[in-house]
Design goal:
single chain; Beta-barrel_OMP; Outer membrane protein beta-barrel domain-containing protein; signal; OMP/PagP_B-barrel
Length: 188
């Protein structure tokens, strides 16, 4: 009996998965706009976020019918975050302002699991531009600033739930400008 139930469940699951429509087809374009929660940058005691992490990504479907109903998309990514570390004592303050700007290229594999839900995972290769500026009123000579940049990579997984044919709610987890990005997606 146990084998029959497992076989029926597997058959039902296979049928329901194969019945889903591909949510990103070849030539379709999607724009994601998100706000990050749980920044991967500058966390700990004394840090405050002056601007929450924001991101935008654009994707174009380039290949259909991968593993039956899956698809592949490629596109670009922009992310921005700003943080401040501040220390106050004896009526004065001193600290640093940090900004991060990430630009990258992404490749995603989409596989529909539930109707109206575009589930995907992928990799990003990008460039992170970081700048820091010292501030404070304790000593007027505090005016140090620096910038740096380097290559970064990221794995991510996400989903877009389509309320209409062109409008969706979006959520992504992974390493980038934030651990979790929530926002909207628009098919163009």
């Amino acid at each position: 009996m146990k084998k029959v139930v497992i076989t029926l469940f597997a058959a039902f699951l296979a049928f329901s998965l194969s019945a889903q429509d591909n949510m990103l087809t070849k030539g379709e374009k999607v724009l994601n706009l998100g706000i990050g929660l749980g920044s991967t940058l500058y966390t700990g005691s004394g840090y405050t976020s002056s601007i929450p992490p924001i991101s935008a990504s654009f994707e174009v479907g380039i290949k259909d019918d991968v593993l039956d109903v899956g698809s592949i998309g490629v596109g670009g990514y922009l992310g921005y975050a700003s943080s401040k570390w501040e220390y106050t004592y004896f009526g004065g303050n001193w600290g640093y302002k940090y900004t991060n700007f990430i630009i990258g290229a992404r490749g995603s594999f989409h596989y529909p699991l539930v109707d109206k839900l575009d589930t995907y995972t992928g990799l990003m290769l990008g460039f992170n531009v970081v700048s820091a500026k010292e501030f404070g009123d304790i000593d007027p000579l505090y005016n140090y600033s620096a910038s740096s940049s380097g290559l970064i990579w990221s794995w991510y997984a996400g989903g877009r739930y389509y309320f209409t044919e062109k409008f969706a709610a979006m959520a992504e987890i992974g390493y980038g400008i934030a651990w979790l990005n929530l926002g909207v997606a628009l098919k163009l």
